């Protein structure tokens, strides 16, 4: 007999070899119909896999991330089975579950798969799912596994198996398809009721640009057609909000092949938006005692060797820049923190000087593969709203909590009120990924956990997600249509101060090592603007939007008056523009509403005679007429009210799940 401990800590006894599905049936027949996978002692299992020793378990339904993982992983195998039936001889790479759905990388040989093929593949997947074939796990010796795929002529699977240890290899079979896989999977294909293949893309084998480019087929599946319909509706809304599309329409940013992939060009309107965001954070930082610094875009290779960045990321960064001097090498700056450490070291410090807070909107460069680039969210050059706090151990928690307050303030200002606070810790079973002593890691992790508890912050813990030099607190934000983004990060670091030999003289007149807090509330300006565009659908808050009003003369004969209105508003610190095209007023209104400009000011003979404007509000229609002075005062009052509400509203105390 073995003891099975349930999540409520109740214990049940079963014979060894009991399966998750049998446990679910014992608890409730309804649960047995809904359960998709089981966690056994922190390892995700199939429901048919035997449990042979005492275990803590958790049964997972569709609502759980683990349940979705098993569902979508099984759907990836179903996709592969359909492809093999439709295109005999096709070769397979990997087919994992992802955050939303699944994909499979395949080598179709001489064939070319296109979007036109997707409906046919979907149809075959549904046909196979209705056969209710079981997913059967089989553990086999490495030699047998290699022989199977060599005989089949699947070199990608042979390569994967060659890197595995004997005794760790498992196959899964369903219907006529067999795949190399760790699992877990559903018990059979019948729960997969609704399928949509979303797109086809290219993907280099093992992410290596020197290897063959495979065809990646993306898809998603659900246990009910209604769920798929809702998802596709959300996907349609996401496409409307796509920051790449809106960024072009709103003339915020652009990319140029001549400049280079992943290197955004900020257009005048985008530069104004970004400048307002920067100024907003700078005002907050002044209140919290930050001092501005500026560092160069390059640094000597030795700087990043000292920090550890070169050892961790050098192979994936831009290659060193050689100067005419023999042996002298520079790197494009991948991080701001080593530079800030050197600024700290410019002069000696006393315990009375601490905390010292350096802030910089510093541009950094990291080489991303071309296939990974995506608008502003994944680029090769980006600007971090970076700051580094150097503090004493007794100041650490208070400084950490103050950074949390800054992030809350930004969330309130931009209406991000659905978020999860994630504590990212080191993987203690894989310590070679990190630098620094166990003692320092334990102190840093404990400081973050205690600071979050003292702020009353509801958190989730992710092991293995820490930065290589220290644990961190990340804020995972859901936007207006429910998508999750990582915005805002705070990291505690005992290690860089040691590597750069940072010191301060303590009250005991002895040398001590400061602790370093890395902090970026926006993360990067590029990514943050992308998320903001999609969250607001391009309708920015009045205090932030690059253009608050557009002046629309009814005909050319009122252009001179419209220019006077423009000058008056600009001199009154109202961000206004003029549309004096020789077009009908209806077209001008429609065109400028598409630009998401909050206020449309129509001027004709009556307005010119009375020194007025007719006011239309984006999405609300006619607001009546106002004098120029009244409209300027109206805009300032509305903007001020928004900012006062941000200042006055209480800080959130808990993450929202």
Q: CATH class of the largest domain, anyone?
A: Alpha Beta
Domains counted in the coordinates: how many? 4
Shape: globular
Mean pLDDT: 91
Strand content: 25-35%
| CATH level-4 homologous superfamily of the largest domain | Bira Bifunctional Protein, Domain 2
- Rounded Rg: 29 Å
What CATH calls the topology of the largest domain is: BirA Bifunctional Protein, domain 2
Strand numbers in spatial order across the main sheet: 18-22-23-30-27-26-24-25
Number of β-strand runs: 35
Helix count equals 20
Helix content: 25-40%
Termini separation comes to 38 Å
Low-confidence stretches: 650-657
**Largest β sheet strand count, sense and barrel closure:** 8 strands, mixed
**SS-based class:** alpha+beta
The CATH architecture of the largest domain can be given as 2-Layer Sandwich
InterPro entries: aa-tRNA-synt_IIb (IPR002314), aa-tRNA-synth_II (IPR006195), aa-tRNA-synth_II/BPL/LPL (IPR045864), Anticodon-bd (IPR004154), Anticodon-bd_dom_sf (IPR036621), Beta-grasp_dom_sf (IPR012675), TGS (IPR004095), TGS-like (IPR012676)
Keywords: Aminoacyl-tRNA synthetase, ATP-binding, Cytoplasm, Ligase, Metal-binding, Nucleotide-binding, Protein biosynthesis, RNA-binding, tRNA-binding, Zinc
EC number: 6.1.1.3
GO molecular function, one term: ATP binding
């Amino acid at each position: 007999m073995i003891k099975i401990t349930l999540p409520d800590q109740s214990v049940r006894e079963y014979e060894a070899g009991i399966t998750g599905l049998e446990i679910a049936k014992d608890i409730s027949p309804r649960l047995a119909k809904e359960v998709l996978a089981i966690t056994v002692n922190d390892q995700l299992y199939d429901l048919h896999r035997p449990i042979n020793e005492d275990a803590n378990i958790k049964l997972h339904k569709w609502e759980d991330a683990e349940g979705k993982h098993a569902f979508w992983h099984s759907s990836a195998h179903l996709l592969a089975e359909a492809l093999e039936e439709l295109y005999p001889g096709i070769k397979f790479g990997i087919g994992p579950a992802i955050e939303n759905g699944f994909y499979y990388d395949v080598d179709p040989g001489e064939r070319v798969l296109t979007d036109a093929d997707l409906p046919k593949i979907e149809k075959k997947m549904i046909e196979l799912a209705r056969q209710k074939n079981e997913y059967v796990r089989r553990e086999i010796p490495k030699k047998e596994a290699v022989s199977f795929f060599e005989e089949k002529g699947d070199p990608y699977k042979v390569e994967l198996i060659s890197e595995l240890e004997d005794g760790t290899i498992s196959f899964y079979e369903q219907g006529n398809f067999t795949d190399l896989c760790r699992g877990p999977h559903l018990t059979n294909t019948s729960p997969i009721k609704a399928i949509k293949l979303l797109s086809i893309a290219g993907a280099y084998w093992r992410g290596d640009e020197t290897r063959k480019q495979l065809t990646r087929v993306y898809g998603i599946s659900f246990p009910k057609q209604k769920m798929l319909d809702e998802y596709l509706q959300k996907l349609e809304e996401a496409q409307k909000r796509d920051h790449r599309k809106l960024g072009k329409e709103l003339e915020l940013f652009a990319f140029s092949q001549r400049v280079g992939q992943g290197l955004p060009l900020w257009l005048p309107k985008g530069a104004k938006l970004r400048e307002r965001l920067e100024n907003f954070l700078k005002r907050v930082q002044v209140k919290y005692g930050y001092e501005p610094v500026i560092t160069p875009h390059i640094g000597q290779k030795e700087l990043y060797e000292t920090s550890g960045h070169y050892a961790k990321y050098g192979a994936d960064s831009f290659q060193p820049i050689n100067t005419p001097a023999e042996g002298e090498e520079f790197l494009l700056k991948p991080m701001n923190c080593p530079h800030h450490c050197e600024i700290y070291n410019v002069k000696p410090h006393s315990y009375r000087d601490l905390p010292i807070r350096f802030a910089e909107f510093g541009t950094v460069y990291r080489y991303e593969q071309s296939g990974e680039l995506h608008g502003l969210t994944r680029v090769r050059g980006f600007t971090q709203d970076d700051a580094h706090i150097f503090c004493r151990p007794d100041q650490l928690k208070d400084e950490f909590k103050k950074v949390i307050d800054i992030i809350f303030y930004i969330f309130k200002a931009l209406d991000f009120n659905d978020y999860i606070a994630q504590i990212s810790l080191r993987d203690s079973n894989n310590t070679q990924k990190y630098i620094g002593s166990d003692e320092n890691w334990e102190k840093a992790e404990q400081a973050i956990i205690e600071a979050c508890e003292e702020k009353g912050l509801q958190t989730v813990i992710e092991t293995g997600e820490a930065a290589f030099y220290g644990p961190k607190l990340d804020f995972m934000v859901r936007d207006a249509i429910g998508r999750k983004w990582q915005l805002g990060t705070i990291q505690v670091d005992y290690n860089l101060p040691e590597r750069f030999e940072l010191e301060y003289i303590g009250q005991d007149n002895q040398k001590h090592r400061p602790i370093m807090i890395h902090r970026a509330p926006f993360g990067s300006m590029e990514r943050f603007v992308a998320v903001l565009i999609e969250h607001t659908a391009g309708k920015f808050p009045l205090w932030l939007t690059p253009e608050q009003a557009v002046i629309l003369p009814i005909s050319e004969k009122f252009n001179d008056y419209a220019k006077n209105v423009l000058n008056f508003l600009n001199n009154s610190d109202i961000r206004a523009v003029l549309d004096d095209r020789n077009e009908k007023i209806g077209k001008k209104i429609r065109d400028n509403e598409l630009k998401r400009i909050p206020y449309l000011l129509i001027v004709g003979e009556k307005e010119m005679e009375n020194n007025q404007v007719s006011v239309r509000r984006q999405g609300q229609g006619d607001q009546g007429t106002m004098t120029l002075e009244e409209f300027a005062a109206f805009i300032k009052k509305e903007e001020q009210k928004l900012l006062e509400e941000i200042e006055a509203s209480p800080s959130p105390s808990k993450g929202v799940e």
